Amino acid sequence: MSETNTASRYITTKELAAELRMTPNAIRIMRHRGQAPAGMRVGRQILYPRAVVEQWLAARLESDPLAQRAAA
């Protein structure tokens, strides 16, 4: 198995979970509930475009009331 290319435009569920300090199963549950960033199925795995993940995180930060209070 090859090492993960950090310059890739896409990340796997496992890589997304590691970045968010969650388990891959938690990401799968979020995806099932429609709460995860948009991803696409390629074969047996889900790939998330890095740009979409960044936009998703930025939107979550903007809508988080605790983050808004901390910024004030």
> Main beta sheet, described?
3 strands, antiparallel
Strand content: 15-25%
The ordered string of helix (H) and strand (E) elements is EHHEEHH
The strand order across the widest sheet is 1-3-2
- Radius of gyration computed on alpha carbons: 14 Å
- Taken from the alpha-carbon principal axes, the silhouette is elongated
- Tally the helices: 4
Q: Give the overall average pLDDT.
A: 89
N-to-C CA distance: 47 Å
Provide the structure class: alpha+beta
Unreliable sequence segments:
none
> In percent, how helical is the residue content?
40-55%
Give a count of the beta strands, DSSP E runs of length 2 or more.
Answer: 3
Could you explain the architecture of this structure?
By secondary structure, the protein is of the alpha+beta class. Helices cover 54% and strands 15% of the residues. It has four helices and three strands; from the N terminus they run βααββαα. It has helices spanning 13-20, 24-33, 50-63, 65-71, and strands at 10-12, 40-42, 45-49. Strands 1-3-2 form a three-stranded antiparallel sheet. β2 and β3 form a beta hairpin. The radius of gyration is 14 Å and the shape is elongated.
